[in-house]
Amino acid sequence: KPFKLPLLAGADVDLSKEKGKVIVLDFWATWCGPCIKALPQMIDAMAAFDPNQVRFIGINQAEDKETVKTFLETRGWKFEVALDANQRVGQNFGVEGVIGPDGKVAYVKSGYEPNGAKEVAEMVKKLMKK
User: Fold this and answer.
1) pTM for the whole thing?
2) Cα-flanking dihedrals φ and ψ of residue 87, to 5°?
3) Judging by DSSP bridges, how do beta strands 22-28 and 54-61 pair with one another?
């Protein structure tokens, strides 16, 4: 489902305008242990892709800007973050979603797995070949 959310850095992300790219969504919150464990691996795995072809967005669930900003600065994490204030988008997807260049959801995963980031990266590679 297309959605539009404000980005932490300002502006919005509008999924309907991202056709042609593979979009990787990671739903997280500062209080979610498994999310925090998975994020560094996702950030690294997604850094390998061309940002013009693959967009990685961490979608924060219902936390305020300051909380999120401070949390990221403390850890030195740099990735694109969107704010899902009422968790509407998160409820539609699960934990991680990959949207293909055609705009359709190609993969959804919930829960933490040690090799989760690798799985997502493999899916992204497959979608880029299509």
Assistant:
1) 0.88
2) 60, 20
3) parallel
